[in-house]
Design brief:
The protein is α+β, with helices and mostly antiparallel strands. The strands form 2 sheets. The protein has a 3-stranded mixed beta sheet. A two-stranded antiparallel ribbon has the order 1-2. It starts with 17 loop residues before the first helix and ends with a helix.
């Protein structure tokens, strides 16, 4: 049986195109006498160009979740909480009858309306409930999504580049972004995990 060269068994971390190679060669000044050091420098430069090309080509529509759990402004909070619990998600977009995003409601919104502002997470709420009598949720019983949602919602378009998505989440300190079409209607949602997974798979 004919043996394959060792380099054919090596799986490259990503696909490097001829254009990436030529771009990398232009980055290196002077005459190229291919030595191990030159080859390493060339490879790293080509890898950088390939990474930039792939990350810039990925858009919101390529990585978003299309089947989105959503609620309406008049959805009772009990139902909102039940949807989030069943789907094991930390937030949902709020849309009007036309499908346009009018807000987002998250665990943080629930916590902010239950008890003191010192409560930062679910376990903090549990701790406070155990120390005091009564359920902290009673204060928001009977209210709707419109009463707690954060509005206006931060949304992105379908063609927003993945790096811009990451920057928006970082700047706004949010964990999810509703994706809308040209008319502002909800078409998907992107989480931090979606971005990290996509970048890992492609880079």
């Amino acid at each position: 049986m004919e043996k394959k060269p060792k380099d054919q068994n090596i799986k490259a971390p990503l696909s490097i195109s001829d254009a990436d190679i030529f771009a990398a060669m232009k980055d290196i000044s002077g005459y190229l006498d291919i030595t191990p050091a030159d080859l390493k420098e060339l490879y790293l430069a080509a890898y950088r160009h390939a990474r930039e090309r792939l990350t810039s080509s990925l858009k919101a529509k390529d990585i978003m979740t299309r089947e989105v759990a959503l609620v309406y402004p008049d959805t009772p909070l009990a139902q909102v909480a039940e949807i989030m619990a069943q789907r094991d998600i930390a937030g949902v977009p709020v849309v009007d009858t036309e499908g346009q995003v009018v807000g987002v409601i998250s665990e943080k919104d629930f916590l902010g309306h239950m008890g003191s502002t010192e409560i930062k997470n679910f376990m903090g709420l549990v701790a406070q409930c155990l120390k005091e009598k009564g359920c902290k949720a009673m204060g928001i019983r009977g209210k709707t999504a419109a009463d707690l949602m954060t509005s206006p919602a931060v949304t992105v378009g379908e063609n927003t580049p993945i790096m811009e998505l990451a920057n928006i989440m970082k700047e706004k300190a949010i964990n999810r972004l509703p994706v809308t079409d040209s008319r502002g209607r909800l078409v998907g949602i992107i989480s931090r995990a979606d971005i990290l997974t996509s970048m890992y798979q492609n880079i």
